Amino acid sequence: MMEPNNRLFVLSWMLKRPGLKIQISRRPKELPQLKSTENELMQSVDVLKSRNRIFDTPPTLNELLDPPEEAEIREMDLAREIVEMVEHEMAVARGEVIEIDSDEDEDLVGLCITRIQAMTLCEQQPQQQPA
Fold this sequence. Notes:
The chain contains 5 helices and no strands. With 131 residues, the protein is an all-alpha fold. The model has no long low-confidence stretch (mean pLDDT 77).
């Protein structure tokens, strides 16, 4: 077994080598527990079908895990987000909302005042007498 420092050295040496390719598998390994759970789920579907609790074609595993109804909800959420963005842009165009970009913070530097300047401005304001 390698010492942690040795592994770090080997890793840093490997990363410095030109032309080194690191390949990451796109498909995760199938876990035995996942496979057995999927099998149990499909057996339950078969039992429901045999007891006449499923009247049409039984759903596939993919249909059970990602039902079409949920896809419709995701599409509705996406549509709702688009509507909200358009409504926001229309409100900006009407002048109801003012957008401030974070990139424009540099423009605000000249507008900042110090505490002393603020106190001086407050002292210069005429005093209002309570009625």
